[in-house]
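From the methods appendix. Each design record in this collection lists the tokenized structure first, followed by the designed amino acid sequence. Records were kept in a plain field format so they could be parsed without special tools. The example shown here is representative of the layout used throughout.

RECORD:
FOLD TOKENS (147 positions):
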């Protein structure tokens, strides 16, 4: 039985389509070709084919803070969301959000929010409750202060 390697679409558990290579016999390929040819093409499939991919990434790594006193020792991973005419950059780790009309503006706003949060927590470090104290500990791991 002759075998060949073919690329075919596969759907991930998250619902995204990707390509995968599989080894198949010619009989399996013929069966697959007939199954695909017989499958109905719905309006959603056509719309998906015509849809343009988003130029906005799903997440970004923020590697700097625009304050000469602060330096990131590791990038902050943040999710990117677009809603209406706004872009949001959200860090679940620090529970901070930055918004703007485009990605660059949202990242700048996020960076400013992180700076404000850092100094607010630093100024009240001896009076923080358990939640903010945990957040302050996380921030000290990722951000170093330079007087």
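DESIGN:
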């Amino acid at each position: 039985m002759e075998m060949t390697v073919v690329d075919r679409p596969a759907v991930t558990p998250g619902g995204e389509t990707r390509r995968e290579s599989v080894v198949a016999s010619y009989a399996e390929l013929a069966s697959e070709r007939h199954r695909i040819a017989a499958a109905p093409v719905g309006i959603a499939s056509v719309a998906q084919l015509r849809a343009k991919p988003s130029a906005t990434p799903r997440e970004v790594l923020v590697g700097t803070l625009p304050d000469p006193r602060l330096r990131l020792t590791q990038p902050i991973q943040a999710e990117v969301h677009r809603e209406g005419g706004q872009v949001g950059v959200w860090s679940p780790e620090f529970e901070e959000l930055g918004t703007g009309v485009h990605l660059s503006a949202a990242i700048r706003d996020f960076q400013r929010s992180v700076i404000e949060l850092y100094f607010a927590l630093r100024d009240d470090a001896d009076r923080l409750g358990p939640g903010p104290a945990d957040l302050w500990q996380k921030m000290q791991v990722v951000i170093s202060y330079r007087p």
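APPENDIX NOTE: DSSP finds four helices and eight strands in the chain.
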